[in-house]
Write a structure and sequence with these properties.
The longest helix is centred in the C-terminal third of the chain and has 21 residues. The chain has 227 residues and is of the alpha/beta class. Helices cover 45% and strands 11% of the residues. About 8% of the residues have low confidence. It has a single domain, classed as Rossmann fold. The chain is globular.
């Protein structure tokens, strides 16, 4: 496996829908930062959680643009930050989500390094929201160990779960310390061990149905902040 993905899938929305995602005069602009869980590895683009979130918010009376996504399968916190800097994106956004860290865990990177880099990314997200912390939303790291790939990987799955919990404890602590909304989707991801319809076709990532569950968890906080 290549860093929680069988390939490095690059989906930078500046290359796909710049005019739709960026140049929106009246819509609420949306920036999604992350890795394979943000782009929705092995699911249709419109089925990933940022696209489903945008659609659901529109159904809740908010006028939200299609998401501008900066995410690649396999990225760690440092790689995400480097890519953000390389893109030199100057726009401010009305909504920013951040979900990052599974590849830090998978590669065995230290918790101290993750804390430092996550804090920097959190500040980056706040900056993209023009300093409005109420418009930033952090999402916890799902547990890849419960997937068919994880179950056949030979890894100590209790250790994987414990490590993911440790990384999530850090991102939650730093998020709440900044007074930012935190949505815990990890328990939902663990249901995939007994629910095959929550798994994507690659046996490693999550299906549109799981992405929809994440959106259901995230939507109330976003609606409350943006309405």
């Amino acid at each position: 496996m290549v860093l929680l993905g069988f390939k490095k899938t690059v989906i930078l929305m500046s290359n796909l829908e710049t005019s739709a995602a960026i140049n929106t005069e009246h819509k609420i602009s949306y920036l999604a930062l992350g890795d394979s869980y943000t782009i929705g590895e092995s699911v249709p683009l419109e089925s990933n959680f940022p696209y489903q979130l945008s659609a659901k918010l529109n159904n809740n009376g908010l006028d939200v643009a299609k998401p501008h996504i900066i995410a690649v399968t396999g990225w760690t916190t440092s790689e995400l930050q480097a890519a953000i800097k390389a893109e030199s994106l100057k726009q401010k956004f009305g909504l920013v989500t951040l979900l990052i860290g599974v590849n830090n865990q998978y590669r065995g990177e230290s918790l101290d390094t993750y804390r430092k880099e996550f804090k920097a990314l959190l500040q980056t997200a706040i900056d993209f929201a023009d300093g409005n912390k109420a418009h930033v939303f952090v999402v916890s790291i799902p547990d890849w160990g419960v997937t068919p790939y994880g179950l056949s990987s030979g890894r100590d799955l209790k250790a994987v779960a414990d490590e993911i919990d440790a990384f999530n404890a850090i991102n939650k602590e730093e998020t709440l310390a900044e007074g930012i909304s935190y949505t815990d989707i990890t328990p939902a991801s663990r249901k995939a061990s007994t629910a095959p319809d929550l798994i994507a076709t690659d046996g490693l990532h999550y299906s549109p149905k799981m992405h929809a569950e994440w959106v259901d968890s995230l939507t109330p906080a976003v609606v409350k902040a943006l309405k």
